[in-house]
Amino acid sequence: FELTVNVSPSLSTVMGYMGTFRFSWLTLGADLWAFVQYVLSGCYLWAALVLALLLLASVALQFFSWVWLRADPADLHKSQPSGRCLALLHLLQLGYLYRCVKGLQQGLLAWRQEAPSEFELAYADFFSLDITMLRLFETFLETTPQLTLVLAIVLQSGQAEHYQWVGICTSFLGISWALLDYHRALRTCLPSKPLLGLRSSVIYFLWNLLLLWPRVLVVALFSALFPHYVALHFLGLWLVLLLWVWLQGTDFMPGHCSEWLYRATVATILYFSWFNVAEGRTRGRATIHLVFLLSDSCLLVATWVTHRSSLPSGILIQMLLSAGASSFLLGLVLRLVYYRWLHPSCRWEPDQVDGSRDLLSLEWCLPPQNRRMTQLARNFFPKAKDDTVSSGKGEMNGVL
C-alpha cells in the first residue's frame, strides 16, 4: 500500500510530461513546416504572421518562467544553475525547455526509487504544475491563433495542403489536451477533490473540443471575409475582457507589471475559452462569459450574412455555420452531462473527504507546494475552501 501511494504520483507526473512533450513538439513542428512552405510559395505575409505568433508566445512563456523562478524560495531549487545562467537560458528562449527537462528528470528519479521521499514527490509535482500552466499559456497565445490563421487561409484559398491539415488536427488535439491537463492539475492541488476518471476525462476532452471549434470557426470566417478588420475586432473584445479580469482583482504574479501581463494573457484565453481567475461561485461568471462569446459570434454571423453569401473560394457559409452550430449544441450537451453525472464531485462521499484520503493527501503535500496552482484551484473549486473550513482543519494548502 505504501509503495502504491508513493509511486503513483510520480508515475502520473511522468505520463503527464510525455503527453505535454508530444503535443508541444507536434504543434511546433507543424507551425515550422507551415512557415517553410509559406516562404517557399512566396506567401511572405502568412509566413511573417506564423513567425510573429511563435516569437510572441515564446517571449511571454520565458518571462513567466523567469519571474516564477525568481519568486520561488531561494532554498527550493538547490541544484539549478546560477541566476545569470538562468537569465541567459530564458533570454535564448530555452527556459521552458529547461523546466521540461528538469521536471522530467525529477519525475523519473522519484519513479525509479522504491520509496521516494515526500520532498521528491512534491518537488516533481511542483515542476509539473508550473509546466502545465505554461503549456496552457502557450496554447492560447500561439496554438489557437495559429489554428485560426490556418483555417482563415484555407477558407480563403478554397484548398488545404498536407501541412495545413496536419497543423489543424494537431492544434485542435493540443488545445483540448492542454485544457484537460490543466483541469486535472487543478484537482491534484486540493486534497478534497478526487481525480478525474477515464470516462470523465474523455467527456471533458470532447466538450472542450466541440465548444472550441465553433468559436475558432467564426473568428476564422471573419478573418477570411474581412481580413482588414479582424485585428480591430480582437483588440476591442480583448480590452473588454481585460477590464473584466482587472475588476475581479487578480493577485497571481509577484509584481505589479508581471500581474498585468498575466491579466493580458487571461484576456486572450477568454477570447476563445473560459478561464476562472477569482474566488467565488464560477457558474455565474462562466454563464456570463458563454453568453458574451455567443452574442459576439451571432453578431459576426449577422455581418457575414448581410455582406456576402459565400467565401472568396466559393465555399457556402451556410454549410459551415450549420456544422458550427451542431458542434456547439453537442458540446453544450456534453458539458451539461459532465457536470450533472460525470463530475467527480457527484460520486464523492462527504465522509470520505474528511476521512483517510484527506489525511493521506495532506501528509505528502506538506513538502514544497506550488502556491500559484493551488490559488487557481481554490478559485476554480470554491467548495474545497468551504469544506476545509467546515471540517475544522483550517488551511491545508499553501504550506511550504
From TrEMBL:
InterPro entries in the record: XK-rel, XK-related_scramblase
A GO molecular function held by the record: phospholipid scramblase activity
One of the GO biological process terms: phosphatidylserine exposure on apoptotic cell surface
Subcellular location: Cell membrane; Membrane
UniProt keywords, alphabetically: Apoptosis, Cell membrane, Membrane, Transmembrane, Transmembrane helix
Pfam families, per the entry: XK-related
Transmembrane segments: 46-69, 163-182, 202-222, 229-248, 260-278, 290-309, 315-338
Protein name stated in the entry: XK-related protein
Species classification: Eukaryota, Metazoa, Chordata, Craniata, Vertebrata
Name of the coding gene: XKR8
